[in-house]
Amino acid sequence: MVLVRELERWGAAARMLRAVLFAVVLAGGVMAVQYRVADHTSLARLHEDLREQRVEAIVYRYEVHNGYYRLDVRWSTGPFSWWQFNEGGGIEVPQMIEDAFPEEYDAPLQGRTFERDLRTAIGDQDIDVRAASKMSIRSSDLPGSWFLRWETPFGWFQALVAVSALAMFGVMLACGGHRYANRWAWTWLFLSSPLGVLAYLYLERRPFPPVLPARAKPPIGGLTGFFLAFPAAIAFTFATAGLAHLIT
């Protein structure tokens, strides 16, 4: 490929680009995992963090379904440090609330009270606060969801991660003769967790130099790659969550 030959001529610049992509994907993957497995705590912790001015972003959602309400709150004291509080899910909304706010039944009294108290606690602090959709506040099992979390307050960075991951996915599909895994295997690994992209950048180094010779062993096939994708995703999640728990 012409693109491969041109990148090989860049030498140090291409190696730097590989290092930058590695760092971006790793940071984005850790951020996505931290948002998904945020430590459970209480609203008292949120108000304490607000008083100490440690909060950078807050994402919350209220929903009412069949007479029951649920409150999900997540807040960040840094892009890699998330906390969460959940309430409801089996608590019936009193009929008086439905009667009082028939046109806004999706925002019951619990939601109004929380938002009012939250705005009061924030005061004049510059904090990104948003009422989020169900997809952004909850974890998603869709393939590739680790790099598609754009609705968080750090969505601009996740968008950069998504562009980087999708670009590497295109490169992987365009390049043949992989050393460690074929296209199908890399596809499953790419979609399951950041480890797939990181492993590709480190092991295959395509289309970045140096060009590595073929291996004696045949590359991993698609079926094997499919089954490897699950433990890879679990390993990355547990390693990231464990490290964050030790730090925080």
| Strand portion | 15-25%
Shape: elongated
Counting DSSP E segments of at least 2 residues, the number of strands comes to 5
Number of domains: 2
Write down the overall mean pLDDT: 76
Biggest sheet descriptor = 5 strands, mixed
Number of helices: 10
Radius of gyration: 22 Å
SSE order, one letter for each helix or strand: HHEHEEEHHEHHHHH
Please estimate the helix content. Answer: 40-55%
Which strand order do you get reading across the main beta sheet? 1-4-3-2-5
Could you tell me how far the N terminus lies from the C terminus, measured between alpha carbons in angstroms? Answer: 47 Å
Low-pLDDT regions: 93-109
Judged by helices, strands and strand pairing, the structural class is alpha/beta
Structure description:
Helix 7 packs antiparallel against helix 8 (183-192). The protein has helices at residues 2-10, 12-36, 43-51, 95-100, 109-122, 134-137, 155-174, 183-192, 194-204, 222-247; strands at 39-40, 57-65, 68-78, 81-92, 128-131. The chain is built from 10 helices and 5 strands, in the order H-H-E-H-E-E-E-H-H-E-H-H-H-H-H. A hairpin with a 2-residue loop joins strand 3 and strand 4. A 5-stranded mixed β-sheet has the order 1-4-3-2-5, sandwiched between helices. This is DUF2207 domain-containing protein. It comes from Actinocorallia libanotica.
